[in-house]
């Protein structure tokens, strides 16, 4: 794995869908798997950069930067995580072009999926194949509204990288500067770990030239 370089950009045109939280979790899981991580925070609020600073002593293999440069791919990192702001501009286009995989978090409400078609078109126009792009169903519950939103996503056949539950333990860990999974039971961690594994599986299939059913 040390020779592999995987870049993941996390973007949605809507704010507040969990981009920074997911970016932090993926960064820390990669570090737990002995990878050298570059976390790039392009959001003006710098939530990813600030929260990773809190846990810096726990993860020496994570480096945080706030700018995306063309020569980053030449540096000695295994895993690149790019957190973005909710807009469509040159910076976002550059972040999408840099990525091997683009993840689009959505919540269990209609506001976070209403613009998905234009999101997919923007990603595609940036040069990222639709097979390389996948939804993350974030903080989904078993409520009627969440179920309706998931039904819409399934109807439109969006690829899905994972379904993440809301976790108060996770949020407390992040705010306290602890490891993302501290105090979490195995079954509470499993869906986050599965997302990380699924990303790597999709990437390795892409390297083989297999771009079909990457997220199955």
What is this structure, in a nutshell?
By secondary structure, the chain is of the alpha/beta class.
Give your account of this protein's structure:
With 216 residues, the protein is of the alpha/beta class. It is built from 7 helices and 7 strands. It has helices spanning 19-32, 47-54, 90-98, 116-125, 144-155, 168-176, 186-207, and strands spanning 6-10, 37-41, 62-65, 79-83, 101-106, 133-138, 160-164. A 7-stranded parallel β-sheet has the order 3-2-4-1-5-6-7, with helices on both faces. Helix 4 (116-125) links the parallel strand 5 and strand 6. Helix 1 (19-32) packs parallel to helix 2 (47-54). The longest helix has 22 residues, at 186-207. It is globular, with a radius of gyration of 16 Å. The two termini are 22 Å apart. The model has no long low-confidence stretch (mean pLDDT 93).
List SSEs in N-to-C order.
EHEHEEHEHEHEHH
Number of helices: 7
Q: In angstroms, what is the radius of gyration?
A: 16 Å
Q: Assign a percent range to the helix content.
A: 25-40%
| Outline | globular
How widely separated are the two ends? 22 Å
Low-confidence stretches: none
Largest sheet: 7 strands, parallel
Number of E strands: 7
Oligomer: single chain
Strand order of the largest sheet: 3-2-4-1-5-6-7
The whole-number mean of residue pLDDT values reads 93
What would you call the structural class? Answer: alpha/beta
- β content, as a range? 15-25%
């Amino acid at each position: 794995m040390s020779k592999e370089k995987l870049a993941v950009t996390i973007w949605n045109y809507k704010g507040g869908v969990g981009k920074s939280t997911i970016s932090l979790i993926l960064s820390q899981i990669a570090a737990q798997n002995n990878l050298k991580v570059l976390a790039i925070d392009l959001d003006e609020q710098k939530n990813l950069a600030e929260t990773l600073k809190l846990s810096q002593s726990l993860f020496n293999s994570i480096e945080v930067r706030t700018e995306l440069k063309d020569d980053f791919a030449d540096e000695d990192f295994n895993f690149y995580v790019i957190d973005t702001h909710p807009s469509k501009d040159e910076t976002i286009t550059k972040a999408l072009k840099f990525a091997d995989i683009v993840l689009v978090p959505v919540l269990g409400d209609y506001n976070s999926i209403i613009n998905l078609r234009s999101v997919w078109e923007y990603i595609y126009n940036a040069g990222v194949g639709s097979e390389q792009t996948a939804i993350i169903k974030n903080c989904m519950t078993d409520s009627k509204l969440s179920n309706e939103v998931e039904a819409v996503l399934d109807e439109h056949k969006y690829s899905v990288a994972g379904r993440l539950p809301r976790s108060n333990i996770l949020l407390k860990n992040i705010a306290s500067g602890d490891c993302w999974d501290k105090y979490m039971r195995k079954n509470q961690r499993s869906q986050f770990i599965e997302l990380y594994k699924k990303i790597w599986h999709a990437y390795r299939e892409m390297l083989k030239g297999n771009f079909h059913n990457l997220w199955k």
